Amino acid sequence: MHVLWKATSQAVDQWLLENNMDITRLQLSVLRMLAHHGPNTISELSRNFSIDPSTLVPTVDALERKAWLARERDPNDRRRVPLHLTEAGKAMLQQIPIVHKDDPLSMALQTVGEEQTAEIIRLLLDLIRHMPDGEQMIKDVETRLYAHGAKEHHLICRQHKDG
Fold it and tell me: Is the domain of 84 the same as that of 118?
């Protein structure tokens, strides 16, 4: 899992650099999370990313300076400060593909073929189901895939429902 994560992360970093995008991978992840799940606080984001809130503060500050997100007070709880994706943030996300053509994981899955890809997905879903909050994690992934119109969405949903 770590090897896959590292390879895809490096590929994203390289793509962002080559395309002169003024955004880091973590900043991109924050924008995507807000786009898919709506307003979140720094604490909520830190739980979702499994990183310390203090790590997110400079990232959120940078995104706010770029006007890609905005902080707004919760009218029902003055202590809560949800982060909202701005129109400029949505426009930035439109410039960055979810999966670029040189993504190593995507290329590898294309190489192994549809049948083996389906089996890999089935096994991963089975593994995730046995984790704490596994069903919710699967639902979160389905939502993101659907939001991006991924062609694999139907395959993943079918694998999930067939259980």
Answer: no
pLDDT tens by residue, 21-74: 999 999 999 999 999 888 999 999 888 888 899 999 999 999 999 999 999 988
Could you give the angle at which helices 114-129 and 104-112 cross, rounded to 10 degrees?
Answer: 120
Contact criterion met (CB below 8 Å) for 70 and 84:
yes
Residues 86, 26: one domain? yes
pTM attached to this predicted model: 0.75
The answer to the question of residue 58 being in a domain is: yes
Q: Could you tell me if 88 and 26 lie in one domain?
A: yes
Structural domain containing residue 63? 22-94
Which helix or strand (DSSP H or E) is residue 69 part of?
A: strand 69-71
- Tell me how far apart the alpha carbons of residues 48 and 104 are, in angstroms, rounded to a whole number: 25
CB 22 within 8 A of CB 61: no
